[in-house]
Design goal:
The protein is an alpha+beta fold and 239 residues long. Helix content is 17%, strand content 27%. The strands form 3 sheets. It has a 7-stranded antiparallel beta sheet with strand order 5-3-9-1-2-7-6, with no helix packed on it.
Length: 239
């Protein structure tokens, strides 16, 4: 017979020392269970050497985020700021290695000294220009002032893998040229099914862009696909 959450809570209350309070609140119980579960997963992760350990963790894997690789690399630690140049309403910031960032990306700076700006440079900003693989520009409403103190400051971004130690798996997608496909039929409500006239190279897990569909706007946009037949696929949102 399966152990329910109520059974576990009762068993926990009977076995854990309660000398001081004689009571364990649900919040404390949940916190202790979460810590125990996290520690157990960490132990299994560090000792994984058989397929069994991989299988036990695979169902717990989640996608923290996905991002485009720019410059054929990703970072697992903050980048050291190498230079800060004042240019009107902008700061041009250089780094000691390629930054893998694009216009519109979010970045966060810390520890930069000597620069006065509004908002302060040490914080979150949007990349407004990319001058090279090792420099980028952020903009302000008022011109920044001051003189950069050499060898101060670091930069992080969502495109970095901060917890590389617990990185379980990484998947890469590649862009492949595909001729435009004409849609034969579209149906469905909660799940949209799309059919093509001709055979193609699309497979389950590919990402496609659909446009020009009239009468079913939910079909337009970027979707993941699942192949369900020789010419038919189901469309799923990217979230």
């Amino acid at each position: 017979m399966a152990t329910t959450g109520a059974d576990l809570y009762k068993l926990f209350g009977e076995t854990v020392d309660k000398d001081y309070t004689e009571y364990i609140s649900p919040d404390r119980f949940n916190r202790l269970m979460k810590n125990a579960f996290t520690n157990l997963c960490d132990i299994i992760y560090r000792q994984r050497d058989t397929q069994k350990e991989y299988d036990e963790l695979s169902e717990l894997s989640v996608i923290d985020h996905e991002f485009n690789i720019n410059g054929n690399r990703f970072h697992i630690r903050p980048l050291q700021v190498l230079s800060v140049t004042l240019s009107g309403l902008n700061l041009i910031i250089g780094f000691n290695e390629p930054h893998n960032l694009e216009v519109g990306d979010q970045v966060e700076f810390s520890g930069i000294q000597g620069i006065t700006s509004n908002p302060v440079v040490n914080g979150t900003h949007t990349v407004t220009a990319v001058g090279s693989t090792t420099s980028l520009t952020i903009s302000f409403g008022l011109a920044p002032t001051g003189t950069y103190v050499a060898q101060t400051g670091r930069m992080t971004s969502p495109k970095m893998i901060g917890d590389y130690y617990h990185l379980f798996v990484m998947k890469c997608r590649f862009v492949e040229s595909q001729e435009l496909l004409s849609v034969y039929n579209i149906s469905g409500t909660s799940v949209v099914t799309i059919s093509f006239l001709n055979r193609n190279k699309l497979r389950t897990g590919h990402q496609v862009s659909v446009s020009g569909v009239v009468g079913m706007n939910s079909a337009n946009g970027i979707h993941w696909i699942k192949k369900t037949g020789r010419y038919t696929y189901e469309l799923y949102n990217c979230e």
